[in-house]
Amino acid sequence: MKKRILLSRKKGLLFVVGAALVFMAGCTVKKVKSEKSVDTTDKQIVYQTKKTYEFKDIGVWVSNEFDGARLNGAYQLNDSTITLQFYPENTPINKSPYYAFQTWSEVPNKVYFAFTYPEGFDHRYKPKRKINGEWTVIDSLDLIHTENGPLLKLELQKEPQTIAAQEINSSKDVGDWIRQEIVKDRDFVRLGSAGVSKMGKNLPVLDIHHGDAEGKPIIVLMTRQHPPEVTGFFAFQHFLKAIVDQSELSTQFLNSYRVLAFPILNPDGVDLGHWRHNANGIDLNRDWSKYRQPEIKNAVTYITKASKKDKGGIVLGLDFHSTYEDVFYTNVKREGTTLPNFIDDWFEILERDIKGYMVNEAAANSTMPVSKGWFLYGQNATGITYEIGDHTPRDRIAEIGATSAKAMMQVLLKE
User: Fold this and answer.
1) Partners of 42 in the beta sheet?
2) For the segment 150-184, what is each residue's pLDDT rounded down to a tens digit?
3) What is the CATH number of domain 52-164?
4) What's the CA gap between 358 and 363, in Å, rounded?
């Protein structure tokens, strides 16, 4: 099997289990030390002002008054151009500007929108448009790259259209999807809560297994630590749907294993339209060490309590994200873990069952407190950061997500 190893590593870590213990919500959980400590104490953020901007002389409105919006200011430059300002919630932050706004016009109107970001930040995401409930990628010919930044040409109507860096899936959208597509009438899918976020939003968790949970090895799935990374969320959706599809494979798997799935770990950041952080201005995927943020503290507590209560070891953790291209970030250390051969066996099936697919793997023992290291050095389990490219086609995401779930089940049933 051929696999590429990336030279640049986005997320890595080398963890050792610390001796310190912390008592949380009636459960004792281990802190995990990282080689490179990251300060995850609260940092001040700047909230965008929720507002609908009216430009009377050209009959155009622009708004950020909806969940998932990101628009920090708007002003008219000339009779056909509106300048839009987009700023991050705080800094330092990764250089991936997120934007989302709605716009409409009294009469059919062609308008140019000039995007402006703070100095040092460049445009990343192709703009998407939602009209009448349907998302499409805007034609590249309508996005003009100038020396002052991107200029987006739009044909406006009375019907509002949402323009965003990535498709918006708010905490409400995710909750609706969970109930309609995953829970349904499946009695083996138990919808619970790991607690609440900084702003009091629910942290849903799905506990999935047939029969008694006692002694069943645990697989943990999670996504949306970083708000705009929705292609990873799409892969998570197809992955989870394959697990609960009640096929012969799914039934056999859930007779032997237990899945704990966290569909939205950062609901505050998602709904606030943050570029990366939670409501405390922190990257949650740097808090898997001291658990200073409520979202990670609650998730770790829930996982630990479930494992201890039912005597089921944590064997695998998959954390779904998005980046510039499809890639699996893995740990080099495998010998002596609960599933030393899982990664190679899993990747072999993916390359066999997905036409024209070659696994893109970047293996490194990480140095920062991220989730894949928490699984390895905190649980002696396999931890993988499962990344989907920003612009990977939706049908390809569906294929990769579903096939990788089936492959995981096949490999684990042979263990």
Assistant:
1) none
2) 999 999 999 999 999 999 999 999 999 999 999 99
3) 2.60.40.3120
4) 15
- Which DSSP state fits 311? T
pLDDT of residue 33: 82
Question: Per-domain residue ranges for the chain?
Answer: 4-35+169-413, 52-164
User: What does the alpha-carbon distance between residue 370 and residue 401 come to, in Å, rounded to a whole number?
Assistant: 22
Q: Give the Cα separation of 123 and 150 in Å (integer).
A: 7
Triad 262, 366, 269: Cα angle to 5°? 35
Beta-carbon neighbour count of residue 310 at 10 Å?
A: 15
Identify the pLDDT of residue 30: 81
Residue 140 has pLDDT above 90, yes or no: yes
Residue 1, pLDDT above cutoff 60: no
pLDDT for res 7:
35
* Confidence at residue 365, expressed as pLDDT on a 0 to 100 scale: 87
CA-to-CA distance for 415 and 407, rounded, in angstroms? Answer: 13
Is-contact 275 227, C-beta < 8 A?
A: yes
Whether the predicted pLDDT of 48 surpasses 50: yes
CA separation for the pair 385, 330 (Å, rounded): 7
- H-run or E-run covering 320: strand 314-323
Topology of 4-35+169-413 in CATH?
Aminopeptidase (3.40.630)
DSSP 3-state of 236 = helix
SS (H, E, C) 111-169: EEEEEECCCCCCCCCCCEEEECCEEEECCHHHEEEECCEEEEEEEECCCCEEEECCCCC
Residue 67 Cα distances to 15, 80, 102, 107, 170, angstroms? 36, 28, 11, 26, 6
The answer to whether the Cα torsion of 31, 92, 386, 236 is positive or negative is positive
Quickly state the pLDDT bin for 19 (edges 50, 70, 90).
Answer: very low
Burial status of residue 399 (CB atoms within 10 A of its CB: 0-12, 13-18, 19 or more): middle
| 286 three-class SS | helix
| β-sheet bridge partners, residue 143 | 152
Q: What is the pLDDT of residue 218?
A: 98
